[in-house]
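Re: that backbone. Tokens:
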């Protein structure tokens, strides 16, 4: 069965997006510096409001003086200035970033790479915001309501996170009520850390909810979704919940060249299977073959599925040189809706060359 060009184009875009997902995110380093924050959100403002400026403050935690060698911006619209003289042990320095606000109305997220003497990898700082051509209401820019609070969104995504690392971001929160608000956060997920700055918001005051996934606290793999109860003035409303998701992958930063030479190498006989025109409510069965072309065992840490009920039968550890079947069963409950559909099976592995292997089963369900 052949699909029209539009469907093939959509499939190509989907496959390409999966390829992009596998590109490692910028690593978060540990080193001699700490920053008061690494991300600053300017919020919403108009294109006629002029340039926006923020100053990041850093502390030298090492036992010797350091020098900020250079700060490289990802865009000419963002100009950094920084402390030029050596920063002594326990001393502080600053990096002031000015966004020119002359690029037109659009959301922006700009990155600065901070290079420090004696430290080979840069620290990463970010500024972001949303520029509007005309004035928008608070209801437009912060549509999520939690009692007296308004937020931009309640579903938060940290993207890729390397095992053994911490990744942090923030979302703006505004107290629209007439009384002060005290915020706390409660979660059963050990890897999720959430706090607010400041913890008390006066009427009309802006703050930020800072959220982190710390993979050092509990080993987890693949796609994760953590939840957090927002406690407003000691009140717990079941609807006042934040979700934080991420994708935890293998950390290859400590691997030597010798380690990589003997690492497992996953290889599929194919990456996608097109099933024939299938009646709604029918089961779909198919198979892939997974080989380990490396010199050490291939381990499948986690299997993530795009649809509920998909069953995957396979060995979770594959010896060097071995090939194992990957049997896929898509249940009738996942084929009830007619139309074009793509089912995705994502394998999180211990292979530095392919920490994620994506398998696709696609086709058309008929009424």
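Recovered sequence:
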């Amino acid at each position: 069965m052949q699909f029209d060009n539009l469907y093939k184009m959509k499939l190509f875009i989907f496959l390409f997006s999966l390829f992009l997902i596998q590109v490692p995110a910028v690593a978060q380093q540990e080193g001699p510096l700490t920053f008061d924050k690494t991300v600053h959100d300017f919020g919403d403002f108009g294109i006629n409001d002029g340039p926006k400026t923020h100053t990041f403050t850093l502390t030298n935690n090492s036992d010797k003086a350091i020098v900020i060698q250079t700060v490289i911006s990802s865009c000419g619209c963002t100009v950094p200035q920084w402390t030029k003289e050596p920063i002594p042990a326990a001393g502080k320095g600053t990096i002031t970033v000015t966004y020119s606000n002359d690029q037109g109305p659009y959301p922006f997220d700009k990155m600065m790479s901070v290079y420090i003497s004696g430290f080979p990898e840069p620290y990463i700082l970010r500024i972001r915001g949303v520029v509007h051509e005309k004035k928008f209401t608070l209801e437009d820019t912060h549509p999520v309501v939690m009692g007296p609070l308004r937020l931009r969104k309640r579903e938060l995504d940290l993207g890729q996170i390397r095992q053994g690392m911490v990744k942090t971001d923030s979302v703006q929160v505004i107290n629209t009520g007439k009384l002060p608000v005290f915020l706390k956060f409660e979660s059963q997920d050990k890897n999720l850390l959430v706090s607010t700055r400041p913890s008390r918001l006066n009427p009309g005051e802006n703050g930020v909810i800072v959220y982190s996934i710390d993979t050092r606290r509990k080993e987890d793999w693949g796609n994760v979704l953590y939840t957090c109860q927002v406690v407003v003035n000691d009140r717990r409303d079941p609807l006042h919940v934040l979700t934080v998701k991420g994708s935890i992958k293998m950390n290859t930063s400590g691997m030597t060249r010798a380690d990589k030479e003997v690492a497992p190498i996953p290889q599929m006989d194919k990456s996608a299977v097109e099933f024939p025109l299938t009646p709604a409510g029918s089961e779909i069965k198919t198979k892939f073959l997974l080989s380990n072309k490396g010199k050490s065992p291939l381990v499948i840490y986690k299997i993530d599925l795009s649809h509920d009920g998909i069953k995957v039968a396979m060995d979770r550890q594959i010896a060097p040189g071995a090939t194992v079947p990957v049997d896929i069963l898509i249940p009738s409950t996942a084929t009830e809706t007619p139309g074009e559909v793509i089912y995705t099976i994502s394998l999180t592995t211990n292979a530095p060359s392919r920490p994620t292997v994506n398998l696709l089963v696609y086709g058309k369900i008929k009424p």
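The domain at 137-252 is CATH 2.60.40.10 (Immunoglobulin-like). The CA atoms of residues 135 and 296 lie 59 Å apart.
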